Amino acid sequence: MARTTKRSYPFELKLAVVKGYLAGEGSAGALARDHGLSSSKLVEAWARAFREGGEDALRPRPRGRPPRDGATSPGEPSELERLRAENERLQAENAYLKKLRALRAQGRQ
């Protein structure tokens, strides 16, 4: 069985085809053939989406799952950033304590 892949078309092509279709420049089938589209149903679906949502309905949407609500907000550092800052603070504290011990050891001699 042959696998088919879903083609995506650029926004500009979709917009040009839909505007031509709505202006009466040709039928859905003729416009699909002229622009090398796989089906006249695409033109009709794009025109329907354009009527309902305007140009934004033809723009590509982000794919995949949307981020969770519990994800870090833009002002809040991520866990990795928080851990790096804590690590840096602890390293500085450790260096300070080592230096303090060395100074105290020098004063006893």
UniProtKB/TrEMBL annotation:
Enumerate the residue ranges of region (Disordered).
Answer: 53-81
Checking Pfam families in the record gives:
HTH_28
The organism of origin for this protein: Sinomonas flava
What family does the Swiss-Prot or TrEMBL record give for this protein? Belongs to the IS150/IS1296 orfA family.
| Residue ranges constituting the Insertion element IS150 protein InsJ-like helix-turn-helix domain according to the UniProt record | 14-65
| Coiled-coil ranges (or none) | none
Gene3D superfamilies for the chain: Winged helix-like DNA-binding domain superfamily/Winged helix DNA-binding domain
What parts of the sequence cross the membrane?
A: none
**What protein name does the entry list?**
Insertion element IS150 protein InsJ-like helix-turn-helix domain-containing protein
Tell me which InterPro entries the record gives: Homeodomain-like_sf (IPR009057), InsJ-like_HTH (IPR055247), IS150/IS1296_orfA-like (IPR052057), WH-like_DNA-bd_sf (IPR036388)
